[in-house]
Design brief:
Strand order of the largest sheet: 2-1-3-4-5
CATH class: Alpha Beta
Distance between the termini: 18 Å
Radius of gyration: 15 Å
Strand content: 15-25%
Order of helices and strands: EHEHEHEHEHH
Number of strands: 5
Largest sheet: 5 strands, parallel
CATH superfamily: Flavodoxin domain
Structural class: alpha/beta
Shape: globular
Oligomer: single chain
Number of domains: 1
Length: about 180
């Protein structure tokens, strides 16, 4: 079974994007598509980026743990809110901290906002950064507009049928990319 890591990137109090991370974990496991683990950046206390992990003499244990989880995953889903047209510093910090872990890693991005556009303004900047890091970003998007209305705090969708169809396409694209990458190796 494939192993998918879901990065819940917001560390903000009252965050809503974590609801979507919970949904993806539930969906993947309930449908026996992959084992799924959420990496909740709110559980880590990373300092501001000073140096890449592989060049640090005394890396934080949490950073080493995080790197190992990304490295061992077959694929990654990043769930990120949009803050003023960009993604949160907590996510930028982790993207810059790691290097080899991103290289050739199949990765899908879900953007979230309380507004009507679902965080779509952040997708190109995050994709570009991950592309520069060597990640294999999939050509599927999962924007979530009005997240407070779309998902409960427990990660349950307000419209399970429509959300399930969107999730099937989104996760299916990631799983196909993982499979294609594995065959190409």
């Amino acid at each position: 079974m494939k192993k998918i890591v879901i990065i819940s990137s917001s560390i903000r109090q009252g965050r809503k994007s974590h609801r979507v991370a919970l949904w993806f974990r539930h969906y993947l496991e309930f449908n026996n598509l992959a084992s799924a683990e959420i990496i909740d950046l709110a559980e880590y206390s990373f300092p501001l980026f000073e140096e890449r992990l592989k060049k640090q003499q005394n890396p934080l244990p949490g950073a080493v743990e995080l790197a190992g989880k990304i490295r061992s995953a077959d694929g990654v889903i990043i769930v990120t809110p949009e803050y003023n047209g960009g993604y949160p510093a907590s996510l930028k910090n982790v993207v810059d901290l790691l290097t080899d872990e991103w290289r050739r890693k199949p990765l899908a991005i879900s953007t979230v906002s309380d507004g009507p556009f679902g965080g779509t303004q952040v997708i190109t900047s995050l994709q570009f950064t991950l592309w520069k890091m060597g990640a294999l970003t999939v050509p599927a998007m999962f924007p979530v507009p009005k997240v407070s209305e779309a998902f409960s705090e427990e990660g349950l969708p307000a419209d399970p049928e429509a959300t399930g169809k969107r999730t099937e396409r989104f996760t299916g694209e990631l799983l196909r990319c993982i499979e294609a990458f594995n065959q190409a190796e």
